[in-house]
């Protein structure tokens, strides 16, 4: 589904991503874990074409995305639920969801059906559909960011720290929702600081340290590795 080959990404002189390669196969949940500043967000931004790698290539379903415009990534089947709940704060919940489907040319009835599907997954958003998004709680905004990404019916969903800042009960809910979305057929690349939870739901994982991949493998095996436990799972 997604193949990343030897990419380097710089912010000016800062070498944030150093010769990184990884892949996400169709149907998988793959997680990128690592401490603050390891480069997780930078990788997702590179995949969704907000940032350009200086070297290397990214292939989506076999196609090199080098010359694809950022807004066309949705048409290729990739959606990004960004960090920090970057929803459109001044718009209503409904308007935010409509923006998620904006690029797709589809009929009104299809749009309504997609919206209904999102509401089935997130009943809370339905209750609050006329509310200005910036006034939602943190958890609701996070759900809206995910719901908005789902409106484009992605084949692969990039998720940046979906559990960040949420109360424990909401963290549980969000991870259940991620598993459900995957079971319904969407491939997921999940970036998380909550490595423990991410590894529990992922098939495979890559561990990042200062812009490099330092470990990779089956998620459950990584969960039981002493070095990983010590460094990322709180002992
Ligand atoms: P976090 O979870 O804190 O977001 P991260 O693993 O996602 O961490 P990145 O945000 O990708 O890490 O940052 C990787 C490195 O690039 C860090 O050293 C960071 O300071 C640097 N960096 C990120 N954004 C910029 C920027 N706009 N300009 C300069 N350096 C940046």
Structural commentary:
This is Amino acid/amide ABC transporter ATP-binding protein 2, HAAT family (TC 3.A.1.4.-). With 235 residues, this protein is of the alpha/beta class. The protein has a single domain, classed as Rossmann fold (3-Layer(aba) Sandwich). Helix content is 36%, strand content 27%. The chain is built from 9 helices and 10 strands. The chain has a 6-stranded mixed β-sheet, sandwiched between helices. A 4-stranded antiparallel β-sheet has the order 2-1-4-5, with helices on one face. Helix 6 links the parallel strand 7 and strand 8. Helix 2 packs parallel to helix 5. The chain is globular, with a radius of gyration of 17 Å. The model has no long low-confidence stretch (mean pLDDT 91). It binds adenosine-5'-triphosphate. The site of adenosine-5'-triphosphate (ATP) has 12 residues, from strand 2 and helix 1.
């Amino acid at each position: 589904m997604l193949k990343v080959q030897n990419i380097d990404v710089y912010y000016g002189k800062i070498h944030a991503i150093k010769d990184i390669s990884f892949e996400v196969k169709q149907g998988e949940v793959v997680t990128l874990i690592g401490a603050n500043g390891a480069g997780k967000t930078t990788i997702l931004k590179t995949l969704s074409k907000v940032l350009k790698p200086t070297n290397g290539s990214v292939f989506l379903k076999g196609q090199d995305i080098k010359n694809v415009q950022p807004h066309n990534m949705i048409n290729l089947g990739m959606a990004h639920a960004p960090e920090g709940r970057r929803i459109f704060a001044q718009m209503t919940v409904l308007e935010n969801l409509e923006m998620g489907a904006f690029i797709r040319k589809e009929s009104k009835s299809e749009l309504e059906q997609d919206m209904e599907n999102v509401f089935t997954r997130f009943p809370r958003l339905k209750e609050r559909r006329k509310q200005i998004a910036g006034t939602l709680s943190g958890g609701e905004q996070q759900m809206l960011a995910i719901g908005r990404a789902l409106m484009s019916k992605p084949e692969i969903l990039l998720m940046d720290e979906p559990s960040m800042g949420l109360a424990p009960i909401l963290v549980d809910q969000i991870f259940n929702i991620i598993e459900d979305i995957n079971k319904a057929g969407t491939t997921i690349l999940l970036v998380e600081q909550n490595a423990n939870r991410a590894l529990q739901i992922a098939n495979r994982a890559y561990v990042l340290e200062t812009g490099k991949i330092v470990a990779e493998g089956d998620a459950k095996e990584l969960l039981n590795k002493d070095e990983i436990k010590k460094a990322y799972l709180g002992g």
